[in-house]
Design goal:
By secondary structure, the chain is an alpha/beta fold. It has 17 helices and 23 strands. Strands 1-2-3-4-5-6-7-11 form an 8-stranded parallel barrel, surrounded by 5 helices. The chain has an 8-stranded parallel β-barrel with strand order 12-13-14-15-16-17-18-23, surrounded by 4 helices. Strands 8-19-22-21-20-9-10 form a 7-stranded antiparallel β-sheet, with no helix packed on it.
């Protein structure tokens, strides 16, 4: 066991008290677990969002069992951490707070949270308890980490698709500790920015799917008659990033290495725990040597297809693909001002008549942002035509991307002094805009910060007031807290199946995207993974520092065979086709249409 902080802690998932001894003997320092709240699940059909794991066996299911688990872990001299790491709508937040309070009073040594309202509840009642910012919170640049430290988070969990060099940069200087994933359940579609459902009804409406529910792992049919798959289930669920231990263990703010796998069989987790413990206790300090060691031991598989942190970017030449027909841009009939989000490949302001303004940038990929020179050209052209100009930024990872995004925002502020507005899709960028550009730019919460559920398979649920409320409920207290910190009054949303009352305090203006609903964004690019498979036979995890943007000609419509349920795959995102609503909330005062060419 790690008795001092000379090396980072090894944090592992646990499902039941009976697993304590085996995991402790294998070398675990800290155990993390979630709670299943039977009362909420019985009252609200389909609810499975207490802690990010829909399967009951992936969490502790009763207060008595939890107390037994905590006592058993403490008897072995280890620590326990409660994971309540989801975003909560107002209707369930009181029950979540009550369950969290019970766990803390039962002796857990810390909590992992994503929801800022839950964070404030815990911090006010137990100010000395260590609180960790979950990867679901979407903190992955220096501005976000600095904010977490000011708020009082002791640690921050970085998202899975971070490059090792980026992590090294984020550990410099003072600030909260950093926790890193090193094994199992790697994912292209980033936790904080993914709305793909893992618990959905069967096609006939009876019960729930238990096999291959995440749409990203299914074989889908595209509109050209081919197949499409976002992620290979085996490669993602058995991924290895153990070499990160050697690359990062010496950095002073690396607090813990984390193994993923709540709900998975014990033996699968044990293999990674034993190997991670061995590397942590060894003198190996070189990533290449760590890879050789893992291969030599053969406890887990080290391969390009399963690597968390690939060292080499794929540069193969892709198979030529004919551009797919673009979805037609529909301009809704409305009296509200309409803005056009330019296609990522556009180099002129070619928009439908009657547009009040344009949006430049991209919601989901930094490589699809315009250059500074192109932004100035497009913005100047629109301003000369009397149109307003807005900028939208995707989630920006580490400081290289953050600096690039802020330069674009500053350039727009210079072109349109006092009339600039920037949409950010991660908390850190919002805060950086406020701190560095102040009143020179207005700030808007992007769609990736406003949790909405648009998976078409949710429509299998029978119509009922409870189900509709569940599908459409948003984490208003959390959204309001972000707006308060960023001094932002506007948020962007997608069309909703049935609008609920807008409850995010302080945010009283909404921009509605008339186009598809944003389901998920990736960073380890699906398009580049497919190209890698074409040219090398290995569907590797690609997180490029530079990109030639082959995705601009590879977007498509995909569908679940035999179901009629369809999705749009556009660049590195999955979207859901949604109809423009007949009635809008009073807070909506602007419409955005997406130009597809």
């Amino acid at each position: 066991m790690n008795q001092t902080r000379q090396v980072p802690l090894l944090q592992v998932p646990i499902n039941a008290t009976r697993e304590v001894d085996a995991l402790a003997d294998a070398g675990a320092d800290v155990f993390y677990f979630g709670l299943t709240l039977a009362g909420i699940r019985e009252e609200r059909v389909g609810w499975a969002m207490e802690n990010g794991r829909d399967k009951k066996e992936a969490s502790v299911g009763s207060t008595g069992e939890m107390r037994e688990l905590v006592a058993a872990v403490h008897a072995r001299g280890r620590r326990t951490v409660l994971a309540m790491n989801r975003l909560y709508p107002p209707a369930v937040l009181p029950a979540i707070e009550e369950a969290t309070a019970t766990a803390i009073e039962s002796g857990v040594d810390g909590v992992i949270v994503s929801d800022l309202a839950l964070f404030r509840f815990v911090q006010q009642r137990w100010p000395e308890l260590p609180i960790t910012a979950s990867t679901i919170m979407g903190i992955h640049n220096s501005a976000g980490i600095a904010l977490a430290g000011r708020l009082g988070f002791r640690q921050v969990v970085l998202p899975r698709p971070m490059r090792l060099e980026e992590i090294k940069g984020l550990t410099q200087g003072e600030g909260p500790g950093i926790e890193i994933f090193i094994a199992r359940e790697r994912c292209r579609f980033i936790n904080a920015y993914c709305r793909l459902e893992h618990l959905v009804p069967n096609a006939d409406g009876s019960g729930f799917e238990r096999k291959a529910s995440p749409i990203c792992t299914q074989n889908l049919l595209d509109d050209a008659g081919g197949n499409w798959q976002g992620e290979e289930h085996e490669a993602s669920s058995e991924s290895c990033g153990l070499c990160a231990i050697a690359a990062l263990r010496h950095l002073p703010r690396i607090h813990a290495f984390k193994i993923v796998g709540r709900g998975n069989p014990l033996e699968l987790r044990l293999r990674f725990v034993r190997e991670a413990r061995r590397l942590l206790d060894s003198s190996i300090a070189d990533r290449v040597e760590a890879e050789k060691d893992v291969r030599r031991e053969q406890a887990v598989e080290c391969s390009p297809a399963k690597c968390y942190y690939p060292a080499i970017e794929h540069r193969g030449k892709p198979t030529p693909v004919a551009p797919q027909p673009a979805e037609p841009t529909v301009v809704p009939q409305t009296n509200l001002p309409i803005h056009a989000l330019l296609f990522a490949g556009a180099n002129t302001v070619d928009v439908p008549d009657g547009m009040a303004g344009i949006y430049l940038g991209h919601e989901t990929c930094v490589h699809l942002l315009p250059s500074l020179s192109l932004l100035r050209k497009l913005a100047s052209s629109a301003i000369d035509r009397g149109m307003e100009v807005r900028l939208v930024l995707p989630p920006l990872f580490a400081d290289r991307e953050l600096r690039a995004g802020l330069k674009l925002a500053a350039a727009l502020a210079t072109l349109a002094p006092g009339r600039s507005e920037v949409t950010a899709n991660d908390v850190g960028t919002l805060i950086a805009l406020r701190e560095e550009l102040g009143d020179s730019v207005g700030r808007t919460l992007g769609r990736l910060l406003v949790f909405q559920r648009h998976d078409p398979r949710l429509l299998r649920w029978k119509e009922s007031a409870e189900t509709v409320a569940l599908v459409n409920a948003m984490p208003a207290p959390h959204i309001g807290a972000i707006g308060e910190m960023a001094l932002a009054r506007r948020a962007e949303v997608s069309p909703s199946r049935e609008w609920q009352k807008w409850e995010a305090k302080g945010i009283d203006r909404l921009t509605l995207h008339a186009g598809p609903g944003l389901l998920s964004m990736g960073r380890a690019c699906v398009t580049l993974a497919g190209i890698a498979a074409e040219t090398s036979g290995v569907r590797s995890f690609q997180v490029p520092t530079h990109c030639d943007r082959p995705c601009l000609t590879r977007h498509r419509k995909v569908s679940v065979p035999g179901s009629g349920e369809s999705y749009l795959v556009h660049c590195n995102a999955m979207l859901a086709p949604l109809a423009f609503p007949n009635a809008l909330p009073a807070e909506v005062d602007r419409i955005v249409i997406h130009l597809n060419r």
